[in-house]
Amino acid sequence: MNMFEEAQAICGMIDMCSATQKEIAEKLGVSQSYIANKVRLLSFPEDIRELILKCGLTERHARALLRLKDSEEMRDVIQKIKAMHLTVAETEALIEAESVSAMPKKIAATPAGERLCFFEEILKDSVKNLASCGIKVRTSYDFLGNMRLITLCIEE
Fold first, then answer.
1. Residue-wise over 124-145: b if at least 16 C-beta within 10 A, else e?
2. In b/e form, how buried is each residue of 33-53, taking b as 16+ CB within 10 angstroms?
3. Torsion from C-alpha of 120, 124, 129, 131, nearest 10 degrees
4. Looking at residue 94, what DSSP letter applies?
5. Three-state secondary structure call for residue 57
6. What is the tens place of the pLDDT at every residue in 55-113?
């Protein structure tokens, strides 16, 4: 049984028993978050599910892909994961880098903001290049008021 069939079976149990995720988790001897994570997998369109299975991605890879909103972007990232044999951590770094381009560019209206956006694009490309070389990189982007915090963690 693949991850999507398991998720469908769990949803079937929830419907059949008119139970909550927590109640099903207790019956199965797993955590509620385990059930929630399984059910979230069903939010993929059918064609993306098939591609995930065809490319042999793990459930953790699939859950990382849930952060992407667009099916075309998902297809692109899935192909990169397969072609570069990315680990889950490398996949998460790639998706984080992809997400940066979708962030609102509020500060881009100023010359300094334009330079920052340019820097972020270079940083995103650099992270992709490192990941493609097998170097594990984690990137996080946080906002504190009008400050943008960019953190790179490179594993040796």
1. beebbebbeeeebbebeeeeee
2. eebebbbebeebeeebbebbe
3. 140
4. H
5. coil
6. 999 999 999 999 998 899 899 999 989 988 888 988 888 888 776 555 554 445 566 66
